[in-house]
Design goal:
- It is built from 12 helices and 20 strands.
- The strands form 4 sheets. Strands 1, 2, 5, 6, 7, 8, 9, 10, 11, 12, 13, 14 and 15 form a 13-stranded mixed sheet that branches. It has a 3-stranded parallel sheet with strand order 19-18-20. Strands 3-4 form a two-stranded antiparallel ribbon.
- β16 and β17 form a beta hairpin.
- α7 crosses α8 and α9 runs parallel beside α11.
- It starts with a helix and ends in an 11-residue tail after the last helix.
- About 5% of the residues have low confidence.
Length: about 475
């Protein structure tokens, strides 16, 4: 999947909004080519179109030192001994006949609307506002002689690639800055229309600036400091697929640029979609998974293979991985708090918010888990479900896990009655076992917890002060306890 991701990334960097990937199964004429040695590349190909005109800087980012010209690359330096050929089709001093002489070379590109050879003739003022890459598919004979790869691309290989893209389609556009539509098609025969296999499109709504509590029209987390939440709807081939809730947090550092992180979760009918593992993203999905209960995105520092994060360990002499450590610890956690705060209002069951608390550890999540629970006591985000709604940590008491769970629920029901009658200043909360253990692992104040003895003391001290008429009306919430 690295190849399509690379082209989507380049298109996104160039400001493109749409990407169209086409498996061109046609064989094209080969009489009029830029070079006679290019005949064998006029067969089936993979073509990638985007609707942005690449600039010199965009191509420089791909290590290709070219402008907006027609270019052919030969990494083997065999068909083209100098490794490539460049023709400026828009050069007004260029003889128009050169376009006719290489007309078959340009023929495959004419399947895209707006592209035709008349654009490059008679000093036309029009131009093709887009970019097309054509990748001839390696045949069996070419694979045998290739110095790059012995893998040939037949129908099975292409369909396997497309299947991978379809499975990963949502993540390919979830965090991109500009690209909001990816389409994958087949072109069987000359003169036919594209056969769309699938497409993914994205719409963004309800962008809220948390710093000013105002609505925004767009998100640019890599160009400015921001703290916002928003919704994303992903549609596959005209059918709505998923709604994602996303929180973005970025800050500009003095010399090192923007550090940015996003946390996202999909939600359906008020139920969050919690997976055992989630893909890590660097604006496009990485081949890296974490045990975090949400999708994490950030401008991470990657290894040269782009297959893993660079992380700092106690054995490192250099500052390698420090960027990622800080991004996970100091920038991702605020985004996570804001995501949890956003998710609450969408949930059918308030307690489902706990399913998004990070608890499982791996080399990525360990930085987030530690920071999350250390910052929780000072966080003003109300994340704990109580009888009167969500409260922040300073306004609750947690019933000890040592008490049998069924008894915890009964005790909570009775404490809720006391709280509703203003006989307790803090609301009682029962936490899932995994989260409760995290509260014991990290230094939380001991008076945050209610042991069985504490619960009974509070009940016995305050039950005589109850308004029994009101309490009897709330009898159903007493969980089986009776008054008097």
């Amino acid at each position: 999947l690295a190849l399509p991701k690379e082209f989507v990334q380049n298109a996104d960097d160039a400001g493109a909004e749409r990407v169209h990937i086409v498996w061109d199964k046609r064989s094209h004429p080969s009489d009029n080519l830029l070079d006679a040695n290019l005949v064998e590349y006029q067969g089936p190909s993979l073509m990638i179109y985007n609707d942005a005109k690449f600039t010199a800087d965009d191509f420089r980012n791909t290590n290709w030192k070219i402008w907006t010209w027609f270019c052919v690359f030969d990494p083997h330096c065999e068909s083209l001994l100098d490794g490539g050929r460049v023709v400026n089709l828009n050069d007004k001093f260029l003889d128009n006949h050169i376009v006719d002489l290489m007309s078959d070379q340009l023929k495959p590109f004419e399947c895209f609307e707006g592209f035709n050879t008349s654009l490059f003739k008679n000093n036309s003022s029009k131009e093709f506002l887009g970019t097309i890459f054509r990748l001839p598919l390696r045949s069996n004979s070419q694979a045998e002689n290739s110095k790059l790869s012995k893998l040939s691309y037949d129908e099975n290989e292409i369909m396997c690639l497309f299947d991978m893209m379809r499975k990963m389609g949502e993540l390919l556009i979830l965090f991109t800055q500009n690209v909001h539509e990816i389409k994958v098609s087949i072109l069987e025969n000359e003169g036919e229309d594209f056969e769309c296999l699938f497409s993914f499109s994205r719409s963004i709504s309800n962008i809220t600036n948390l710093l000013s509590n105002t609505n925004l029209s767009s998100i640019r987390i890599l160009s400015e400091s921001t703290e916002c939440t928003y919704e994303v709807d992903i549609t596959e081939s005209s059918n709505h697929v998923k709604k994602y809730l996303i929180s973005a947090y970025s800050r500009k550092r003095h010399l090192e640029g923007i550090m940015a992180s996003c946390a996202a979760v999909s939600i359906c009918d008020g139920i969050p979609n919690i997976l055992k593992t989630n893909t890590l993203c660097c604006f496009l999905p990485l081949p890296i998974h974490s045990k975090l209960p949400f999708i994490l995105n950030g401008n991470f520092e990657l290894s040269t293979s782009r297959r893993e994060l660079t992380m700092k360990t106690i054995d490192d002499k250099r500052n390698t991985g420090q960027w990622n450590n800080e991004l996970l610890r100091d920038y991702s956690v605020p985004a996570i708090f804001n995501l949890l705060n956003l998710v609450k209002s969408y949930l059918q069951e308030p307690e489902d918010v706990y399913s998004l608390f990070p608890v499982e550890l791996d080399y990525i999540s360990e930085h987030i888990v530690e920071s999350f629970y250390k910052l929780l006591p000072t966080s003003n985000v109300p994340l704990f479900s109580t009888i009167t709604g969500f409260q922040c940590l300073s306004n609750i008491k947690i019933i000890d896990e040592d008490i049998d769970f069924k008894m915890q629920i009964k005790i909570k029901s009775l404490l809720d009655v006391l709280y509703n009658n203003k006989l307790m200043s803090n609301a009682a909360v029962v936490l899932p076992s995994k989260i409760f253990k995290m509260f014991y692992k990290y230094p939380f104040p001991s008076d945050l917890f209610l042991s069985l003895a504490n619960c009974l003391r509070i009940i016995l001290q305050n039950v005589k002060n109850l308004n029994y008429k009101e309490a009897e009306e709330d009898h159903i919430s007493w969980g089986g306890f009776t008054i008097g």
